[in-house]
Write a structure and sequence with these properties.
By secondary structure, the protein is α+β, with helices and mostly antiparallel strands. The protein has 2 helices and 6 strands.
Length: 102
């Protein structure tokens, strides 16, 4: 099997709250040239809604998930689950370096 296509991006963690009662989903936006290169690397390997399966690392935490097309940026959004945020001490507005492999 060929080596995975790897990407690294510096981004800001943001929160989408479907209502004002607290909680919410946390994401990192991947846009610009990195998003274009990821889209090309994943040709023929996209899932539902145009998602792309990725192996992710933030700090010392690794996990598998998918990135999803993001209409507003023209790139992708990466969900960052609570367990990862807790392990890495992250909250909304924090700058993060994300490594992704397709």
């Amino acid at each position: 099997m060929p080596p995975a296509d790897c990407f690294e991006v510096d981004a800001t963690l943001w929160c989408w709250q479907p209502n004002r009662k607290g909680g919410g989903w946390h994401f990192v936006t991947i846009d610009g040239q990195t998003a274009a290169e990821m889209r090309y690397a994943a040709l023929g390997r996209t899932g539902g809604f145009g998602s792309i399966r990725v192996d992710v690392r933030i700090g010392g935490t690794r996990w598998q998930t998918s990135v999803f097309p993001h209409k507003e940026s023209g790139g992708f959004i990466l969900p960052v689950k609570a367990d990862v945020r807790k392990r890495e001490g992250l909250s909304e507005g924090d700058a993060v370096t994300v490594s992704l492999a397709i």
